[in-house]
């Protein structure tokens, strides 16, 4: 670890790696080429990436081996429930990708349909500490069966009566005849840091956070252009998501029509465009915004 260079722990491969590398690239961080390397050096920022399994990221940051890391809140919370040092780590920035939910689920129409039904039952999970904490808070006594993955098969294999696992679309639960009945934790990727292990790279961390914020904001921000009847301007403004003060400009040769330009700070759904069209909006364009800075 050379002095002045910040070390960032990133998952070697998987969902967090994909999202993490995309975010770094969009933030202008250029990585030097390295084949199969476990360390990647940034060319234009004093930053080194350490590529490891996501489960190891909280302890690497807590021990000071890395100054900061990108990890799922689910993995962070599980590690924090086991280690006070990890529990003391700071979430510097929420990153808005790898969104998923840790849920309790059980076979459809089986004996477990609620948290109370878990009393005396067996629950399979890769998150034993979070599951135990949840059960303790609810005053439920149950057996926890730890599994490394493929947790959804446990009820069918008669290893457990219920599971506590990650859900995103719900397709895996459905494919295994399971239904969720309780949320234990909402999760997304987060940037964590250990202020004592920045190795003189505090300014680099601040720069990364500012750029990440800009990328995250631009991802959910869109630029909308459309033509609208002058007399329905208020109606259209009311449905533009999160638009503050749109620019309204004349359209050459048309006294009854205006052009509207607006920056929308919330997601623009198809249903929004349908509402705009119903209010007389025409030639509607939704454009991505590449970079933003407040
Ligand atoms: N189905 C999903 N949809 C969205 N995010 C998910 C989903 N499943 C997991 N995640 C998030 O992505 C993180 C990484 O998931 P991934 O499957 O890549 O990890 P892994 O198999 O544990 O990888 P590793 O080899 O690094 O241990 C999870 O900890 C969670 O935060
Ligand atoms: O609700 P869904 O969209 O179906 O996603 C949920 C599944 O995704 C993850 O598994 P992954 O695909 O990473 O496989 P793994 O169990 O081998 O980790 C998670 O452990 C669930 O099994
Ligand atoms: Mg893992």
UniProtKB/TrEMBL annotation:
It is an enzyme of class 2 (transferase). It catalyses: 1-(5-phospho-beta-D-ribosyl)-ATP + diphosphate = 5-phospho-alpha-D-ribose 1-diphosphate + ATP. Residues 219-291 form the Histidine biosynthesis HisG C-terminal domain. It holds the Pfam family HisG. Keywords: Amino-acid biosynthesis, ATP-binding, Cytoplasm, Glycosyltransferase, Histidine biosynthesis, Magnesium, Metal-binding, Nucleotide-binding, Transferase. Its cofactor is Mg(2+). Feedback inhibited by histidine. Its main location: cytoplasm. Its EC number is 2.4.2.17. Pathway: Amino-acid biosynthesis; L-histidine biosynthesis; L-histidine from 5-phospho-alpha-D-ribose 1-diphosphate: step 1/9. It is found in: Cytoplasm. Residues 53-213 form the ATP phosphoribosyltransferase catalytic domain. It comes from the Bacteria. One of its GO terms (molecular function) is ATP phosphoribosyltransferase activity. Catalyzes the condensation of ATP and 5-phosphoribose 1-diphosphate to form N'-(5'-phosphoribosyl)-ATP (PR-ATP). Has a crucial role in the pathway because the rate of histidine biosynthesis seems to be controlled primarily by regulation of HisG enzymatic activity. PANTHER family: ATP PHOSPHORIBOSYLTRANSFERASE, ATP PHOSPHORIBOSYLTRANSFERASE ATP-PRTASE. Belongs to the ATP phosphoribosyltransferase family. Long subfamily. This is ATP phosphoribosyltransferase.
């Amino acid at each position: 670890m050379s002095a002045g260079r910040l070390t960032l722990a990133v998952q070697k491969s998987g969902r967090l790696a994909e999202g993490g590398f995309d975010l770094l690239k969009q933030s202008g961080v250029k990585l030097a080429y390295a084949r199969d390397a476990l360390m990647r050096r940034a060319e234009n920022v004093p930053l080194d990436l350490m590529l490891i399994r996501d489960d190891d990221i909280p302890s690497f940051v807590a021990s000071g081996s890395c100054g900061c890391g990108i990890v799922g809140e689910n993995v962070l919370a599980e590690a924090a429930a086991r280690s006070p040092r990890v529990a003391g780590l700071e979430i510097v920035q929420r990153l808005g990708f790898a969104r998923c939910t840790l849920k309790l689920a059980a076979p459809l129409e089986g004996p477990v349909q609620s948290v109370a039904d878990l009393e005396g039952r067996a629950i399979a999970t890769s998150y034993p500490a979070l599951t135990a904490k949840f059960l303790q808070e609810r005053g439920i006594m149950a057996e926890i069966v730890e599994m490394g993955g493929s947790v959804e098969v446990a009820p069918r294999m008669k290893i457990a009566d219920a599971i506590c696992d990650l859900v995103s679309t719900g397709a895996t639960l459905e494919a295994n005849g399971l239904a969720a009945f309780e949320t234990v934790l909402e999760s997304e990727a987060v940037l964590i840091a250990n202020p004592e292990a920045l190795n003189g790279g505090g300014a680099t961390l601040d720069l990364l956070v500012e750029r990440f914020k800009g990328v995250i904001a631009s991802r959910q921000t869109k630029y909308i252009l459309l033509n609208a009847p002058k007399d329905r301007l208020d109606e259209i403004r009311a449905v533009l998501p999160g638009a503050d003060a749109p620019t309204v400009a004349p359209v050459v040769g048309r006294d009854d029509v205006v052009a509207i330009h607006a920056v929308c700070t919330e997601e623009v759904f198809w249903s929004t465009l349908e509402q705009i069209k119903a209010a007389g909006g025409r030639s509607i364009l939704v454009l991505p915004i590449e970079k933003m800075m407040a």
